[in-house]
Amino acid sequence: MASRRISELTDHLGYWLRLVSNHVSTTFARRLEGKGVTVAEWVVLRELYDVEALAPSRLAEAMGMTRGAISKLSERLLAKALIDREADAGDGRAHMLSLSAKGRRLVPELAALADENDKQFFEHLSAKERVEMRRMLEKIVDARQLKDIPVS
Amino acid sequence: MASRRISELTDHLGYWLRLVSNHVSTTFARRLEGKGVTVAEWVVLRELYDVEALAPSRLAEAMGMTRGAISKLSERLLAKALIDREADAGDGRAHMLSLSAKGRRLVPELAALADENDKQFFEHLSAKERVEMRRMLEKIVDARQLKDIPVS
DNA sequence: TATTGTTATACTCTATAACTATA
DNA sequence: TATAGTTATAGAGTATAACAATA
């Protein structure tokens, strides 16, 4: 058997994906800094925006994180008064998380930042290319059954 | 002015990019675990494979990391005996990093894991789609002058 | 003074596991 | 016993800044 060529970092599609993805996320994180929230916090706030209230364990499932991680995250959001936490009426163990008025007001501002950020990076592609990119990414997500919301 | 629709997480290409990219990286990290190295360490080892030796500051530039971060990384690689560190003959401040024999033997194994990992995720795309995906990602990299090697 | 590299400190994200309270 | 949630501990990755040695 012939000895095989050692592949380079740039030989992998994963390399290019990571390069672009990390820049998109890092730039977004910088934008969010001005509003005092992290990317993970933005995801929580956006998740809560569409529902009345959500249990930490449900949030953990939706975000593909452990309960411990969610606990720490929500602690920070509570300290910033962006969410509220209440004991569940029925189940003494359960809690429910919901947006505070302040948090609810913030979400549209953050969504606008997310829009700007996405535009900044992907306006270099044509509308057709953007559709194509999304189609291919969703194809991989479906094929591999990727479910969690990416944060890191 | 009409009130604007609040965009969803999934409205952004950055979301899909991050979702796939994080899964590719996390899965790769699991594969590397078996060899006792992290993704960041793999990048360092692969960078050193093609050169005789490299100063930490050059490595920091190439990887888009601070010198402090590289220092910590190379400390771990030294502890694992995968690299060597020598004082520079000419400049008393400077050091040079290079692969140890053990590190050099390991790189082809890690490269094979990287190949497998990339295949696993992108075999769901046709050869033509893969070319297209790479072309679009490189287009963004060029347009936005993204230079660093992504690690996180 | 400027540069190279290390070290100290800190923060985010994440996981595992121990723990408390309740069911 | 099982579940919901918190807390403790740990480790990777990152940044900033202080520091030592040398230029």
Q: How big is the Rg of chain A? A: 19 Å
* Major sheet description of chain A: 2 strands, antiparallel
Gap between N and C termini of chain A: 41 Å
- Spans where pLDDT lies below 50 across 5 or more residues of chain A: none
Query: Residue share in helices of chain A?
Result: 55-70%
Oligomer: homodimer
Mean pLDDT of chain A: 90
Spatially, the strands of the biggest sheet of chain A line up as 1-2
Beta content of chain A comes to 5-15%
Supply the helix-strand structural class of chain A.
mainly alpha
- Count of extended strands of chain A: 2
Shape of chain A: globular
Please tally the helical runs of chain A, counting DSSP H or I stretches of 4 or more residues: 6
For the largest interface, the chains and their residue counts are: A-B, 56 and 56 residues
Written description of the protein model:
The first copy, chain A, has 152 residues and is mainly α. Chain A is 61% helix and 7% strand. The first copy, chain A, has six helices and two strands. Chain A has a two-stranded antiparallel ribbon. In chain A, helix 2 (39-49) packs across helix 5 (101-122). Chains A and B meet through helix 1, helix 2, helix 5 and helix 6 of A and helix 1, helix 2, helix 5 and helix 6 of B. The structure holds a DNA duplex (23 and 23 nucleotides).
